[in-house]
User: Fold this.
Amino acid sequence: MSQPVEFTKDGKVVIPLYLWNQIKELAEYLYLEELIRYRGNRPGVVSPDKLIEEEGLTRDDLEG
Assistant:
């Protein structure tokens, strides 16, 4: 089921939900990859929950 991205007359873009969810998942992956790279030289003593908290985020932010 492939739905194309649509452009409206007022310049807005309509993205199908399945594609939007894939974009969000990719963005989350890239964000976490950047955090890992940035913190790569630090000792691995921080839990994922603590890392999320230090960045001012919640699990809901990452999931939604």
Notes: The first helix runs from residue 17 to 38.
